[in-house]
From TrEMBL:
Keyword Nucleus found: no
This protein's UniProt keywords: Membrane, Transmembrane, Transmembrane helix
Gene3D superfamilies on file: Oxidoreductase, molybdopterin-binding domain (3.90.420.10)
Keyword GTP-binding belongs to the record: no
Oxidoreductase molybdopterin-binding domain residues: 261-407
Protein name: Oxidoreductase
InterPro entries: Di-haem_cyt_TM, OxRdtase_Mopterin-bd_dom, OxRdtase_Mopterin-bd_sf, TAT_signal_bac_arc
Organism: Cohnella endophytica
SUPFAM superfamilies reported for this sequence: Oxidoreductase molybdopterin-binding domain, Transmembrane di-heme cytochromes
Length: 420
């Protein structure tokens, strides 16, 4: 005997159940990836598996949408007299499609121009801020406990109530006014208010950054440099082009991602070294480093997670000038960079390191680079994704072999060129 095909209602129920689980897991994995409090632990061990799981779940979510579309016409016909259900369905489908399309761009970001990825990340973020609280609210309010019937006072018109009270003293003796809201409504409103209060601060902070400070008049870009964890004095004296910010100022905002504890710096102990396969190993103090000739350039900054900051005015020492001063030996093939956090390293080939726009920057838009953004000195490689632009740079070594950098060891490509 052939098995009977599941009924329409059962098919919808199965799709709804699977979609609920997949969206829940997508929310968990998606929120873990950028969460500062777990980034160090996650990036050191499980970031790539979590990222791959997130991608797989996103693909499965797309498959469920494809399975639903043949049933959609009949489903809409079934709920045509239920405006709330139709509204919920439309909203959830828009969420899923928005997440799916923007997620595909972020997944295949190396195949798209940076502006596509930047836009996709903003859409993905916005849908997450709106969609996750909505889905949590919808899921909880649809539980049996929330839908459980309860004893309610029957509502009557004001005239009917007065008539009953006047004609029946017994009714009047036991009459209790109908409450303005019932228990279920109270719980739903309380849950909605709680979710809104929980999400609002981070949402408005994100919105303010995404709009370049349009809400609170605080511009994007970087924080000021002076604080107790970054005692680097004197501050660099900017060149005229930095003072005038020839690029017009950074367009966008930097997202602070760190996988190690933020290091602290003091100009009394800070040192910058170049060694390895060089003719003249050298070590500079902070004041000596600031005395080196600097250039100013305008370039874009692209993170491999999708966001970009455009038209940055950087001031610093061209890397080619530093290598020339140290004298590169003939057998040197790669340039290895060391971060002041003691963990992060990366490499460029000699040819890449000598590109005109690669520099060790000490100023951004005419101001010292804050510690949170890689200061007091950081590498800038504009034509590659930012994991090549080593933060807190304080050491360079010339080597004759390949080196697997921090992110490359965790699955990132050694070839980090940005698509133009």
């Amino acid at each position: 005997m052939s098995k009977r095909k599941p009924g329409f209602g059962k098919q919808l129920a199965e799709l709804h159940r699977w979609n609920g689980w997949i969206v829940s897991l997508l929310a968990v994995t998606g929120l873990l990836l950028p969460w500062d409090e777990v980034r160090g632990w996650l990036d050191g061990h499980f970031r790539q598996p979590v990222k791959q799981l997130h991608i797989i779940l996103g693909v499965l979510s797309g498959v469920l949408l494809l399975l639903y579309f043949p049933l959609m016409k009949r489903h809409l016909k079934q709920i045509r007299q239920r405006p709330k259900q139709k509204g919920n369905l439309s909203f959830v489908i828009a969420l899923l499609i928005g997440w799916l399309l923007s997620g595909i761009v972020l997944w295949q970001l190396r195949s798209f121009p940076p502006s596509w990825a930047n836009g996709a990340l903003l859409v993905h973020d916005l849908f997450t801020y709106v969609g996750v609280p909505y889905i949590v609210y919808h899921s909880i309010t649809r539980t049996r406990w929330m839908k459980k019937p309860e004893r309610r006072t029957v509502r009557t018109t004001e005239e009917e109530t007065e008539s009953r009270l006047a004609t029946s003293p017994a009714v009047a003796a036991h009459y209790e006014p109908t409450p303005l809201i019932n228990r279920r409504q109270f719980l739903k409103w309380s849950l909605g208010a709680t979710l809104a209060i929980a999400v609002a601060p981070s949402f408005f902070r994100w919105l303010n950054q995404a709009t370049g400070g349009a809400i609170s008049d605080v511009p994007g870009g970087m924080k000021e440099v002076s604080d107790s964890s970054n005692r680097m004095l004197p501050n660099p004296t900017p060149l005229p082009d930095s003072v005038n910010v020839v690029g017009g100022g950074a367009k966008g905002y930097f997202r602070v991602y760190t996988v190690t504890p933020l290091p602290s710096f003091d100009s009394a102990t800070w040192r910058f070294t170049i060694n390895g396969l060089v003719d003249r190993p050298v070590t500079w103090t902070w004041e000596q480093f600031l005395a080196l000739a600097r250039d100013v350039q305008v370039s874009d900054f692209h993170c491999v997670t999708g966001w970009s900051v455009y038209k940055n005015t950087w001031e610093g020492i061209p890397l080619s000038a530093l290598l020339k001063q140290a004298g590169v030996k003939a057998n040197a093939k790669n340039v290895k960079f060391y971060s002041g956090d003691g963990e992060y390293t990366d490499t460029l080939t000699l040819e890449q390191a000598n590109m005109d726009d690669v520099m060790v920057a000490v100023l951004h838009d005419g101001k010292p680079i804050h510690r949170d953004y890689g200061g007091p000195a950081r590498l800038i490689v504009p034509q590659m994704y930012a994991y090549k632009s080593v933060k807190w740079l304080n050491g360079i070594e010339l080597i004759d072999k390949e080196h697997i950098g921090y992110w490359e060891a965790r699955g990132y490509d050694t070839d980090a060129w940005v698509k133009t």
